[in-house]
Amino acid sequence: MLTQNPPAKLLPLEIRVLKTIRDNAMLSPGEHAVVAVSGGSDSTALLLCLHALIPSLGCNLTVAHLNHCLRGKEGDEDEAFVRRMSTELGLPYETESIEVLQQASAAKQNLEQAAREKRYDFLQRIAEKVGAQKIAAGHNRNDQAETALFRFLRGSGIEGLSAIHPVVDGLVIRPLLECSRGSILEYLNQRGCAYREDSSNTDLRFSRNRIRRELVPYLEKNFNPKLVQTLAREADLMRETWTLLEAQATEAFNEMARFIDDGISMKKEAIAALHPALQKQVLRCALRRCTGSLKGISLANIEAILSLCRHSQSGGRILLPRKALAMLQFDDLLLLRKAPGPCPGFRYELEVPGFCHVAEASAAFRTEICGFQERSTAGDYVIRAFLEPSALQTPLIIRSRIAGDRYGGAGCRKVKRMLIDAKIPLTLRDTLPMVVSGKDVIWIPGFRPAKAYRAGNGSETSIMIEVKTDGCD
Fold it and tell me: Euclidean distance between the first and final Cα of the chain, in Å?
């Protein structure tokens, strides 16, 4: 397989790779890298390069190969090829076989995306197993150009057009990213090393193969003979712009975001004050922090959230991919990990005197009959109300709100408008306990009792209702 020993001096590709590694701080002395090797030209060259650079880098290597079980005997031969090469180089070797097609079908997932996810999951597991700090992948400059072109055709923002990054999350490194496919093949020829050809790379049903084999050659011939270099350079410029924008957006997000139960809250005026480019990126940052990833989130989703902030009233909402929700709550934009389901209504009877625990509101109500002198705290209507006994129908009812409720009965103010004016969050309104006499809502903790039901100064006795929350017996 390896027909000659490594040369005494570094070859041009190895020098280029060493510079890329140092310029991007990919590997430090003493670090351990898992090298992803499929057996193809790129990953084979990557392994040979890194092996030759061990004295210069002072690093340790482990070879990792995933058999996707997609190409039968051909895939098994790839695995055997990588195993032999690892043995010849004296490097530890890890492998695994996964039925990717079966798993992708079961999950109704795109095959290419599923294969990629399984591959990186495997590599991360191997890195943890062997104590490696880095995972080295074999993407080259042509891959960079093709990815930038693919994302441009599909429609992508600055992050997408920045294409393949040299280092991702301080974990994945791409030492060949500044090397062309031609220089890689020349290097393998200089080293006298064979490599495996993946027959699926010729399948034009895959968009990337059509771009590589049809579109790029056509554009090079008819528009720009240096297309690959041009696209790769544009991707680099986009990455620089993206890095700056992301840093500014992260700073803005940290200043304005407030973490709440199951999500994030931000003032919509603060979002509106940002440059449009920052607005979009702050929302992307918030959604990533809220849901764990931006999977399924499109530019259309981001623009819909911005439109919600500009044009909608409190209560306006937009369903997002993976059951997330964006909604307005007065002056705040809420991004929730999951859209809250409908809150089941509740209804309890409250005797006088008596006690009632309302689990849905995490509250307990107590009633007692008291005299005029005991009403010294009558103004403390957040937790206590004093009611006129002759006006009440017993038992009193504690329930959740119902459409059309009015505070004090027919002709009185609508409960919905009261809650809106008091800026009670929409997410809390369905669990807000309401004391009802007959059909009339007569008291909501936090509001004064309905006028027709308040105990007057002339009342010798009254019904006191007291509410306690959090940890009540």
Answer: 77
